[in-house]
Amino acid sequence: MKNVWNELKNYNPIVNFLLFGTMLSRIGSSMSLPFLAIYMTKVTPLNPTSILFAVSLSALASTFGGFLGGHLADKIGRKQVIIFSLFVWSITFFCFAVATHIWMFIILNILNGLCRSFYEPASQAMMTDLSKPSQRARIFTLRYLTINIGATIGPMLGALFAMVNILIPWLLTGAIYFLYTIIMAIKLKDINESTYDAKKETVSFKHSILTISKDLPLLFFIIGGILIGTSFSQMSTGLSLHLTQNFNDGFSMFNLFINQEKMYTILLVVNTITIIVLQLKLSSITEKINPMRIIIIGSVLFAIGNVGLGLSFTSGWFILSMIVYTLGEMLIFPASSVFVDQIAPEGMKGTYFGSYQFISLGFFLGPLMGGIVLDHLNGTVLFLMMAVISLAATFFYYIGNKKYRPLPSSSESV
Predict the structure, then answer these.
(1) pLDDT of res. 1
(2) In the predicted model, what is the mean pLDDT of residues 353-377?
(3) Candidates 1.20.1250.20, 1.20.1440.60, 3.30.70.3450, 3.40.50.1360; correct CATH number of 1-193?
(4) Are the C-beta atoms of 348 and 122 separated by less than 8 Å?
(5) Domain ranges across the chain
(6) DSSP assignment of 77-121
(7) Higher per-residue confidence, 202 vs 401
(8) Which helix (H) or strand (E) holds 389?
(9) Are residues 366 and 237 in contact, defined by beta-carbon separation less than 8 angstroms?
(10) 48-75 vs 360-376: helix axis angle to the nearest 10?
(11) CB-neighbour burial class of residue 266 (10 A; exposed 0-12, middle 13-18, buried 19+)
(12) Do the two domains 1-193 and 211-406 of this chain adopt the same fold?
């Protein structure tokens, strides 16, 4: 941990604040959004199908909003997009607290997805603007670590506040984002973005589309990301239902203490602890290696973890499978940001990070696929299918990497 603090001292203060802000915002959203479906059942008369449709619109909006948000980050500037998206995001969460009709939740979920898809590429692009190329692998690792820390703290706080009043998590999340907006506006006031991206003003929307459509490494990478997203989405949907159908510790001494619901919680805790304990140690080994090779290795581990989750019946095997699954996750997602940074031409960092948001299509399709398979077959079949899908992703990653030709090295100065 001491080494991490020493590293942070070498980063631009704005990069450090973006890392802290990412954790803070994820704490806020994790206090409320995981409970959205439950919240909607309490304040509306909607049936489960309508509720799940409204909730899924967030991922769908992220899929198509990322490219526009990323392009705007290149065209008009990172800080304008960051501040605008955070401000609208804060209003969105405040509005969730007063929403009572389906059309309100549809609009708010679309806005939530759009704000996320605007903020993510702009903030990642700003991190690359304000850092040296040699620092970026570790920065994206720290970013992923802060996201997971926030996603761990948030639900616990959300459950605690909801016991007092169900509206508190939404109002508090809105307040957190509003405060983050104000502080970010103050922090970025004196940033002159032209210093970091002289080509920003020459990038047109048409040029962005043409560049993206001809970039085969990026297109294959996005296809692979959609497949991984489809598989990874089962963590929050299919896994709990699979445990309900298949978890049975038999005559294990733990059988008296662990039911399906507790086992799901234990697996989520195992996932989080593995990331927090091992992420930085793992990155110190992998950050010198070609990020696409890391992503391919991660996809294979992801597939092995899915097989394990599909075939497990006892707590020990589920936990071991989750550790392997999490190792794959830890390799894939930080390395993906590094790869996007490497292939993005100067002046189009935001557009490329925004295009990566197309992988949200997998997070939209995954729950739908999982529901169909679980309705007609079972969780074992579902996770074996996800293993095949994860392996299929490695094919597209491999082809994309073969077609990738490194761009000229950018300067180490920022």
Answers:
(1) 53
(2) 84
(3) 1.20.1250.20
(4) no
(5) 1-193, 211-406
(6) -HHHHHHHHHHHHHHHHHHHTT--SHHHHHHHHHHHHHHHHHHHH
(7) 401
(8) helix 379-403
(9) yes
(10) 160
(11) middle
(12) yes
347 pLDDT higher than 90 = no
Mean pLDDT of 82-95: 95
Token pair belonging to 362: 């997998």
Distance separating alpha carbons of residues 141 and 117, to the nearest angstrom: 20
Task: Tell if the pTM clears 0.85, that is, is over it.
Answer: no
Q: Which residue has the tokens 């909003």?
A: 65
Helix, strand, coil shares, percent, the chain, to 5: 85, 0, 15
Q: How far is Cα 293 from Cα 291, in angstroms, rounded to an integer?
A: 5
Q: Which spans in 191-237 are helix H?
A: 205-214, 216-232
* Of the candidates 129, 99, 25, 109, the residue with the CA atom closest to the CA atom of residue 61: 109
Pair of tokens at residue 71: 């392009």
Instruction: For tokens 């994860």, name the residue.
Output: 390
- Alpha-helical runs (H) found in 215-359: 216-232, 238-246, 260-286, 291-311, 315-343, 349-355
pLDDT at 387: 95
pLDDT tens figures, 331-343: 998 899 888 888 8
Mean pLDDT of the chain: 83
The pLDDT of 255-280, averaged and rounded, is 76
Does the structure show a pLDDT above 60 at 29?
yes
Q: What is the pLDDT of residue 322?
A: 93
Q: Which CATH class is domain 211-406?
A: mainly alpha
**Side chain identity at residue 349, one-letter code:** K
Contact predicate 41/51, CB 8 Å = yes
Per-residue DSSP letter, 11: S
